[in-house]
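ok so for the tutorial part 2 we go from a plain amino acid sequence to predicted structure tokens. step 1 is just haveing the sequence, like this:
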Amino acid sequence: KLRELSQKQRTYVWFFVLADCEKTLTKYLTSGNKLKWEMEMTNSDGSQFSEEENGVLGPLVVIFLLLVVFFGNNFVKLYKFYNQEEGMDYPTLILLIALMCELFALGCEVIHLWSYSGDGKGLWLFNFGNQGWSILSQFIITCLLLLIAYGWSIKFIEFEDMDIFLPIGILLGVLHLMIVGLGRITDNEHYHFHDYESWAGIVIIILRMIMYGFFVYLFWDNYSNARGDEKEFYKQFGMLSTAYFMALPFIVIVASMFIPQYYRHKFVLVGNTGV
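step 2 — the prediction. this is what the tokens look like for a chain of 275 residues:
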């Protein structure tokens, strides 16, 4: 007899066992035959979210709206700069491209979760699109921070070594997307508590730390030689950039060590998206 299970104190994990106590299925389970069955479970509100994703949709929508406002504000600044100086503010332009990629990522995730709440499966393409666009956005921001640490837009505007840096940047960007794609193909996400628990996620974190080391190498020379307002700018820029580079490893470590397993996906997803 089926009964409704309801509790509100804390999260529980329910185990279900299918047993053929009267041996009525024995004649069907002969060599070569398989038993296929499907069970559908919903939450009290009718959604099919697991505990890992229950309650994530709301914060993501809020972050999406905040990003739209931030994008619009920077777009207005870029437009005013272009009209006043009759030139392009390229750092702001690159920032807008990164924000656009992050908006695409959040849009994909919201659509995927909305679909998932109804059928319990979601849309694989949008789920992959979320991680792909998000990684691309993070990579663009990382490249922008590296260029500024090198002195671009502060000490010089014309980039003499662009022929070297541009192919390397494109190669690293393609490498990031390939890692995400291979990770989705080869790993079963149902056995992971968050996206960065797979081998692909670990590689992304390692690459982030390598790029941070390169950032420190580029940054320190310019910071040491800077004076006055320029040194103060580099000081603030260095602290904020360090916070950005270290945020993802910190979030993943905290989630893995201190956050309950069924809350890790929420913590990593919302935390990483917010950063």
